[in-house]
Prior knowledge:
Layout: H1 3-21, E1 29-33, H2 41-53, E2 57-62, E3 70-73, H3 77-90, E4 95-98, E5 107-114, E6 121-130, H4 135-151, E7 159-163, H5 168-180, E8 186-187, E9 198-199, H6 201-206, E10 211-213, H7 216-228, E11 243-246, E12 254-256, H8 263-278, H9 281-294, H10 297-302, E13 326-329, H11 336-345, E14 351-355, E15 358-363, H12 368-377
Parallel strand pairs: 1-2, 1-4, 2-3, 4-12, 6-10, 7-8, 7-9, 7-10
Antiparallel strand pairs: 5-6, 5-11, 11-12, 13-15, 14-15
Helix pairs in contact: 2-8, 4-5, 4-9
Amino acid sequence: xxxxxxxxxxxxxxxxxxxxxxxxxxxxxxxxxxxxxxxxxxxxxxxxxxxxxxxxxxxxxxxxxxxxxxxxxxxxxxxxxxxxxxxxxxxxxxxxxxxxxxxxxxxxxxxxxxxxxxxxxxxxxxxxxxxxxxxxxxxxxxxxxxxxxxxxxxxxxxxxxxxxxxxxxxxxxxxxxxxxxxxxxxxxxxxxxxxxxxxxxxxxxxxxxxxxxxxxxxxxxxxxxxxxxxxxxxxxxxxxxxxxxxxxxxxxxxxxxxxxxxxxxxxxxxxxxxxxxxxxxxxxxxxxxxxxxxxxxxxxxxxxxxxxxxxxxxxxxxxxxxxxxxxxxxxxxxxxxxxxxxxxxxxxxxxxxxxxxxxxxxxxxxxxxxxxxxxxxxxxxx
Length: 382
């Protein structure tokens, strides 16, 4: 067959595939490392077949063969990962789905779950890896990584919510600063009566936001629970796995699944990878990072870096005690006592507390407005 005849044959194959799958253009080439699954290689190959039928050109790295996929034979899991890296580096494949990968610091994965209440899809930012050694910085970056992944999956204007964990309030302040400075963020609104973009467990089940921002350890647990709650945890049945590694300047498309992931989820992960390739995830990442940096990303992060400890902590005496009938939420638990002392310094008696939405600073009704001004000026609330 001549090179021209081969090219014509490839074009006709692409047209035939497009008519069958509804997706036209070159099929994304995605590798799957099949060894290491707790459910055996057969589980991985079943996923490869499903994804191939959906329009993904699957390179199966393992010992099994199937007419629907390209098998790259390896002896064990270690050799499989080496071969996967080799194929990525050479450009023979566009991306890969695997069960573990050593991402550098600054790169972490954005998961994609199906939430149980309404069957809504939700991106969880983030699920593995470490965006930053600093918790607040990591969550701010996770939000941007989530936006990149959602846009690269076809959502033009994703909504962003922040899970009510340590760091949520400072993350919220930083993201709202970026939005005010021109970086477009659409904030989700909690389904609970108190509203706001800091979300509760109910919102996780309902899939309230398109993107749920959290720390990677919490995100990892949520992804596992949402994927495997129907099986008692032994078999991840729903969702798309732990997602692609995203980071500034990072251009290797590697998506993570679990050793407990079942064939339907693994197939979804392969299709997820294919969508990211078709939508040029790295071009989207470059544009999003540029836009966030123009809006003051570095400054927003720097303002929330831990301050050096004072040589000797200033002693602040509490003003005369009075009934605390008003409260101000939205303060980080680690900042709670400092926020109370900030009010004491200006003569406002205050106490710390914990409500159902998180930490509170409590004061009298008469001092509420002045207390809110002081805490806002000090950067404890927005």
